[in-house]
Amino acid sequence: MLKTIKFMAACFLAILLLAACGTSGREANLTNGSGAGENQEEKNSTAKGDKVVEEENDTNAENDEKQSVDQEDASQKIRLFEMNLSYEVNKEKKEDTAFLRSSDNQDYSLYILPEFELTGEEPNKDVLYLKENDRHFMRIEILPSETDMDDSVSTIKEQLTAVNSEVTQLQVKHSKWLENAHIYQAEKDDEVVTAYLLKKDDQILKLTIFTTKELNYLDPFLKMAETIEKK
């Protein structure tokens, strides 16, 4: 009987020991599993952080590049105070330094040769004239952007008939900035009047040049007009 009790006690103790070992093993496994999970989360968190930093760096680089381009574009719009212009008067070639001048009457600037002067004639009209003889001059008009080109061409023709009923349409082959211009001319005795209607950049220009056959200043007026730019 005593042996039986000792045997059952030993078995019961063995069962308790096995149960204790199993619990410790499970706790150890749970602990190990939790640690691995935390390490993985830390790795994922670090990777996400690195990706965010890379994206921020890329965005900053793009912004810096855009800002640099904008600054370059702005610097390119700055006009120098002077520039050299080559031109002809009665087939005599000349070159002189032209100086930048802004219109007080309209939204543009241009380079003007020393022999000439710019003045406001009336609202939305300026006159650029030869100082020593104002018989030679160019009227400059900046037309509204919604201007109908066909109507303006008709107006030019009608205005030129005041000089001569015979109005001639001209074609320019060797001047790129005038290649799409509408050009008409009328003559009376020694007087020559030439009108130009064209789009230049985002402006519509109407130029009317008055000169003579004997001393023709058409070319220097056109060379100065070519430098017209919006302010």
UniProtKB/TrEMBL annotation:
<feature type="compositionally biased region" description="Basic and acidic residues">
    <location>
        <begin position="40"/>
        <end position="54"/>
    </location>
</feature>
<feature type="compositionally biased region" description="Basic and acidic residues">
    <location>
        <begin position="63"/>
        <end position="73"/>
    </location>
</feature>
<feature type="signal peptide">
    <location>
        <begin position="1"/>
        <end position="19"/>
    </location>
</feature>
<protein>
    <recommendedName>
        <fullName>Lipoprotein</fullName>
    </recommendedName>
</protein>
<keyword id="KW-0732">Signal</keyword>
<feature type="region of interest" description="Disordered">
    <location>
        <begin position="31"/>
        <end position="73"/>
    </location>
</feature>
